[in-house]
Amino acid sequence: MQKNFSFKLLRSALGNTVVGGLALILAQGFLIMGCETGKVATTDGADSYPVTLVIHGGAGTISRKNMTPEREQEYRKALQHALDTGFSVLTKGGKSIDAVIAAITYLEDCPLFNAGKGSVFTYSGRNELDASLMDGSNLKAGAVAGVTTIKNPIQAAHAVMTQSEHVMLAGRGAEQFAAEHGLTIVDPSYFVDSARYEQFINRRKQQGTKDAASPDGPEKKFGTVGAVALDQYGNIAAATSTGGMSDKRFGRVGDSPIIGAGTYARNTTCGVSATGWGEYFIRLAVAHDISAMMEYGGLSLQEAADSVIMKKLPALGGDGGIIALDQKGNIAMPFNTEGMYRGYIRSPGKAEVFMYKD
Ligand code: ASP
I want to staple 353 with a disulfide (CB 3.0 to 4.6 A). Which of 69, 310, 327, 343 is the partner? Predict the structure, then answer.
């Protein structure tokens, strides 16, 4: 009553427009406070934003003729599990940054993908891992590059973001930092997957002394993993983790740990995670370019993503794909390769997984 009375008085004293504006400002202030306390809910009890998670497990020559039914099942199950893992963080009221870390940690531990355990080999037969993530609510970001002993590089990227003044740490410095912050450190042999190692040895025999990173091996597949999430507070986060490209040179760093190339997130535009021939993604600043086309050009998520992946990237000679998500829960997953492991999950929580073009 008291509130109504004051409101009426105020309205007659200041006029409808001013009071209307004031009410809007107060409402926005309440919403912002609500975001901070994690208590934003619409009156009907539904989530304020359509909580969504989209993931990829790499792009390349993924086609039905190269796949056995058993193998396909393994990939489908792994992608579904990653989606369920990340989505359960979101449905419990968790933040998008934690959802992408949960999904990527699972994929890093799964040897099917070229990230964490099961990563591809450098020319000299080592595993050198890169990862990054970004929080679209404040543009904070973290990354690690060329690490060989951190079990989950995505967790190290998060530690760099939250517990250092830096955005990227590389090599031994990143490993030392991860150890100091209590992350699991493993012997480099942990990352070796025997099937992947056999492929490496066979390829080495065929290639002889050719020293060039290329996705043109018998298994023309990238295999990087990525996740983009939207939480109920409207925050978008993106993350990417990879073993990089087969036969890369010692010390080569791709797009995955580079903010703006392989990963980008901004609440007002979108979140993006990329997979593909990293050198081209760096040169085109792919992830940021998609966001910028939305911000400056007013393009929709799908238009911006298609323009970069289906036009600009092939025009330069690059290949690969991206996953992207905006604050309305729109998803884009374009790729210009034969296939891309990918999937999404949103309310009511049924994971959808795809591998091929059709
Ligand atoms: N983009 C990664 C890189 O160039 C490779 C990949 O996506 O599989 O390191």
Answer: 343
* Average per-residue pLDDT for the chain: 86
Q: Domain range holding 13?
A: 7-34
Tokens of 94: 């968790």
- Residue whose CA is at the smallest distance from ligand 1 atom 4: 278
Task: Record the tokens describing residue 281, joined without a space.
Answer: 């993604």
Instruction: Reply yes or no on whether the pLDDT at 324 is more than 70.
Output: yes
Q: How many angstroms does the Cα of residue 69 sit away from the middle of ligand 1?
A: 26
In a domain, 205, yes or no: yes
Residues 91 and 68: their CA atoms lie apart, in Å, by: 34
How many structural domains does the chain have? 2
Q: Looking at this protein, which amino acid is placed at residue 304?
A: A
pLDDT at 72: 93
- DSSP conformational letter for 189: G
Query: For the purposes of burial, counting CB atoms within 10 Å of the CB of 354, is it exposed (0-12), middle (13-18) or buried (19 or more)?
Result: middle
Average pLDDT over every residue of 54-78:
92
Q: What is the pLDDT averaged over residues 203-213?
A: 63
What's the CA gap between 273 and 261, in Å, rounded? Answer: 9
User: Nearest CA to 196 among 113, 283, 274, 302?
Assistant: 113
* Catalytic site includes residue 224: yes
Q: Which residue has the higher pLDDT, 65 or 178?
A: 178
Same domain, 27 and 138: no
The answer on 271 and 137 residing in a single domain is yes
Pocket of ligand 1 (CB under 6 A): 58, 114, 222-224, 242, 244-245, 254-256, 262, 275-276, 278
* Span 175-195, pLDDT tens digits: 999 999 999 999 999 998 877
Give me 165's structure tokens.
């003044």
Best probe residue, ligand 1, of 123, 275, 283, 286 (max atoms within 8 Å of C-beta) = 275
For residues 67-79, average pLDDT:
94
- The best mutation among 107, 245, 284 to test binding of ligand 1, ranked by most ligand atoms within 8 Å of the C-beta, falls on 245
- 272 in Cβ contact with 263 (< 8 Å): yes
pTM of the entire predicted model: 0.85
Residues 30 and 81 in one domain: no
The atom number, within ligand 1, closest to the CA of 248 reads: 9
